[in-house]
Design brief:
Layout: H1 2-25, E1 30-34, E2 40-44, E3 48-53, E4 59-63, H2 73-99, H3 110-151, E5 158-162, H4 164-185
Antiparallel strand pairs: 1-2, 1-5, 2-3, 3-4
Transmembrane segments: 118-140, 162-187
Membrane topology: Multi-pass membrane protein
Subcellular location: Cell junction, Tight junction; Cell membrane
């Protein structure tokens, strides 16, 4: 039972970590589209902004100036939290691989392997919470930005939606959290 639970948690953690990595690297955290004309589709991300022409499908992307340049707080905080979540999830996966019962590393000491799985679960939990905070922070800021435009009557038919990168970050963080719960609570 313990080995099956470990392998299940490892599979979920691996898939969720890939989701978090993909969310960090991709650039569609916020979608800005014009309802009335449907001429272009703009995706804003952590690293650049891309505009797709809806008529011919041509996509152009503009890199942000520099990592060290002044950026909005939502971008800086989300970048920091997502990169930290990526690093912690990677560390947790490496620790978990070494702690799995099916791996021959430290086979003679099962207590140490169990502690490695438990430690991987704790690290994964911290990483997942940081990733979830980063994803939700960005989503809330998008919602507040749209609400401010509407409340100031600046709303010109443009709407803001959460992009697939934002949803991917939330799903990956939630999956890592579930895997950490499996590793920390269910193994004992």
């Amino acid at each position: 039972m313990s080995a099956a639970l470990q392998v299940t948690a490892f599979g979920l953690a691996l898939l969720s970590t890939l989701f978090i990595l993909l969310a960090t690297c991709t650039d569609c955290w916020m979608i800005n589209a014009d309802d009335s004309l449907e001429v272009s589709h703009k995706c804003r991300g952590l690293w650049r902004e891309c505009v797709t022409n809806m008529q011919d499908g041509v996509r152009t992307c503009d890199q942000y100036d520099s990592i060290l340049a002044d950026h909005p707080v939502k971008i800086v905080v989300t970048r920091t939290l997502m990169i930290t979540a990526d690093l912690l999830a990677g560390l947790a996966l490496a620790t978990l691989v070494l702690g799995l019962d099916c791996i021959t590393f430290l086979k003679e000491d099962p207590c140490v392997k169990l502690k490695m799985c438990y430690g991987a679960g704790v690290i994964l939990c911290v990483g997942s919470i940081l990733g979830l905070i980063g994803s939700v922070w960005y989503a809330v800021d998008v919602y507040v930005e749209r609400a401010m435009l509407v409340s100031h009557n600046i709303f010109l038919g443009v709407h803001y939606d959460f992009g697939w990168s934002c949803w991917l970050g939330m799903a990956g963080s939630t999956g890592c959290f579930v895997a950490s719960v499996l590793l920390t609570c269910c193994l004992y």
